[in-house]
Sequence to fold (97 residues):
Amino acid sequence: MAYSGIQEVYFKSRYTWRNKMRAMVDQPPWQKGTVDFYLQKNCAFYYRDLDDTVRYLLQQRVYADHLVFVPKQEFDSEGHRIYTEMHTGDWWWRIQV
Fold:
């Protein structure tokens, strides 16, 4: 069954699919570093630039309804304070921007 306006897309390898997906979402690139431990030297680790990663996450529409920028106090039905997420903790109330 053919759908009008939709092109069939084929990939010959996982490598090709992954590269096309990465190009679509424009994720921050991975960086590679090494660290020396006491018992093992030159251990590889991978990381992304923090600023680029935060910028990328904040641009994602799927997260828009779940982002919290202000602290919130939550209470149960009996009036007791409850802590469910980071923004419900007391330390968010002390942060001054």
Q: What stands out?
A: The mean pLDDT is 82. Residues 14-25 form the longest helix (12 residues). Residues 10 and 16 are 10 Å apart (CA to CA). Helices lie at 14-25, 50-58, 91-94.
